[in-house]
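Sequence and structure are no longer studied apart. As an example, we show below a sequence and the tokens encoding its fold:
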Amino acid sequence: MNRRKAIGGILALTGIGIATYTGFHFFYAKSNRGQLPNYKNLIAALVDVIIPATNTPGAKEANVQDFIISYMESCSSKKEYTNFFNGLNDLQETCLDTYGFGFEKCTPQQQIAIVKDLDSTYEASGLFSKIRNKISGRPFYTILKALTVEGYCTSELGATKHLVYEPIPARYKAITTIQPNQKAWATK
């Protein structure tokens, strides 16, 4: 028997074994999907800090937390779901270590400080963040903030009470003027 053929066969079998294990782990590994409804109160507290109730209803009243849970459970990629789930757990651990209790039980000032810290941490933009997002998916807070704004603006309360929305526009004006402090509805 030729020694080179034997070594090549051993390396080929090793490569096939590693590829099989990696493929099995990628497609059939235990997933955390289905556990986000247990975090509904935490997500509701987070969206309430991002878009609080003022003279218009906040994100919590618009049930944005249900939208986020539904989106993450059914539409997100595995990487982003894992990033989001791990981010929620990391946030709770940070709150427990810093304040001694979960995010939901923190004072409003503590909640705002935590969210500001998250916002400054994940605010990076540029080439490196685009590469990181492509490889490992968007970070937790970026997903949370984007889904909060999207869920709020597309909810009935957000579209009717916060934004000016005409479901059936009666006229078309190519150029229009906006009055000072007038609310606006815009899409991409």
About this structure: The radius of gyration is 23 Å. The longest helix spans residues 3-28.
